[in-house]
Write a structure and sequence with these properties.
The structure holds 2 protein chains of 2 kinds. By secondary structure, chain A is mostly helical. Chain A is built from 8 helices and no strands. Chain B has one domain: MetI-like fold (Orthogonal Bundle). Chain B contains 8 helices and no strands. The chains are: A mainly alpha, B mainly alpha.
């Protein structure tokens, strides 16, 4: 059995993997930052802000992610914003993930007893100082396990970029299978897709194990 | 939005075609959800009782599925299985992938529900002379099932939303039909507005139904 096909395919898929890693890095950082800001703002009791954040979260969480990606990809050109599929995917994934992370952050903040806000205020601290010095340091610790879980989900979800034509590791694999079918008649689809499954498992399994070990350690 | 006018007539023209897609979406989702519930309850029980060998197999299944992307699993079933001599239709691959995926999440949901049922209840059941199976059937399961309900309904909703990924294998469900209309007519806003409304309505209706079911099943005076 010849394995001549494997070399070029691996090289091509490695190029795709670099795109996947870039997409992961950008969306993980952007959505974590956006999620922390949105989640922190959502505990402020001011009706218009509450409603706007609620709408943002419900909308991006309620829609299937692939629908958001398609929409952003097709809709931006009609308002004369011309971006490639990579940017559209990064924006769509960040909106979706930041909505989820905002919920995680909000949950962590409201889990801190309200007395601490009052105590902080009694000490003469302003809202921002109470948040920065008292609430967030505790809330950030509580939110780390679900946050890591969400980021594992996000890393897996970056593969949806392939559906709008981003040449990520999955799209590179799919194109390789199509090319092999035309050139040799043997698609080698089992090997190619199994390789992609293994790559993601190697990245995500340690991370989710880490998340659950953190969760166990937090339970006193 | 210069040069683009939103034309509601486009929506009415294409609505029957889209609703046909919604029907397929609901069909594969409901089969997937039913299967995922069965896998979840069985797998959750196996993990709770730590049955030898079987428990390890279930854990491997759960970890593998939860740590690999849904879309790659879908491609494997649709594009790679024929290479192993198993050719499935788009419909079968759709519900099967959703079932395998949702099942892996439900195993963890039910395991958490079953193990969180206070040990005192189980011991009480055994002290009353119930066998291990009876204690599960009449005590652990009814209570654990209710505890697991909120996370199980989240999983059901993600199965429903996951059905939209069948666009990637060209299975003509709701998203695939909308995308193909956009491809032919460039009516981006009309189509995505319509399916966004349909998805949000279905998801919200489903979560209301689940919350209603949770309230109906709640045991009076028993706070889970």
């Amino acid at each position: 059995m010849s394995t001549d096909w494997a070399g070029p395919v691996a090289a091509y898929m490695f190029g795709g993997l670099r795109t996947t890693i870039a997409l992961c890095a950008i969306t993980v950082v952007a959505s974590t930052l956006a999620g922390i800001v949105l989640g922190t703002l959502s505990v402020i009791r001011w009706r218009p802000l509450e409603l706007a954040l609620r709408a943002h979260v419900e909308f991006w969480r309620g829609l299937p992610t692939v629908v958001s990606l398609f929409f952003i990809f097709f809709a931006l050109p009609t308002i004369h914003v011309y971006v490639n599929a990579f940017v559209a995917a990064a924006v769509g994934l960040t909106l979706w993930a930041s909505a989820n992370i905002a919920e995680i952050v909000r949950g962590a903040i409201v889990s801190i007893p309200r007395d601490q806000f009052t105590a902080g205020a009694a000490l003469g601290l302003g809202w921002l100082s109470v948040m920065r010095l008292i609430i967030l340091p505790q809330a950030l610790r509580r939110m780390i396990p679900p946050l890591v879980g969400m980021l594992v989900n996000l890393i897996q979800t970056t593969t949806l970029a392939a559906v709008i034509g981003v040449l990520d590791v999955l799209e590179a694999g799919k194109q390789s299978v199509e090319r092999l079918t035309l050139q040799t008649g043997n698609p080698h689809a089992v090997e190619v897709y199994a390789a992609i499954l293994v790559i993601f498992f190697a990245i995500c399994f340690p991370l989710s194990q880490y998340a659950s070990s953190l969760e166990k350690r937090l339970v006193v | 939005m210069s040069g683009y006018t939103f034309d509601p007539a486009i929506i009415w023209q294409n609505l029957p075609f889209l609703l046909g897609g919604l029907l397929l979406t609901l069909e594969v989702s409901l089969i997937g959800i039913a299967g995922a519930l069965a896998i979840g309850i069985a797998g959750g029980a196996v993990r709770t009782f730590q049955l030898p060998v079987l428990s390890g197999v279930v854990r491997a299944y759960v970890e593998f599925i939860r740590n690999t992307p849904f879309l790659v699993q879908l491609f494997f079933l649709y594009f790679a299985l024929p290479g192993l001599g198993l050719r499935l239709t788009g419909f079968t691959v759709a519900w099967l992938t959703l079932m395998i995926h949702g099942g892996s999440y439900n195993v963890e949901n039910f395991r958490a529900g079953f193990t969180s049922t206070a040990a005192g209840f189980r011991e009480g059941a055994r002290a009353l002379g119930l066998s291990g199976w009876q204690a599960f059937r009449y005590v652990t399961f009814p209570i654990g099932f209710r505890t697991a309900m909120p996370s199980v309904s989240n999983t059901c909703i993600s199965v429903l939303k996951g059905s939209s990924l069948m666009v990637a294998i060209g299975f003509p469900e709701l998203t695939d039909r909308a995308v193909s209309i956009v491809g032919q007519t460039f009516r981006v806003y009309e189509m995505f507005f319509t399916i966004a409304v349909i998805y949000l309505l279905v998801v919200w209706a489903f979560s209301m139904l689940m919350r209603w079911a949770e309230r109906r099943m709640a045991i009076p005076g028993f706070i889970i």
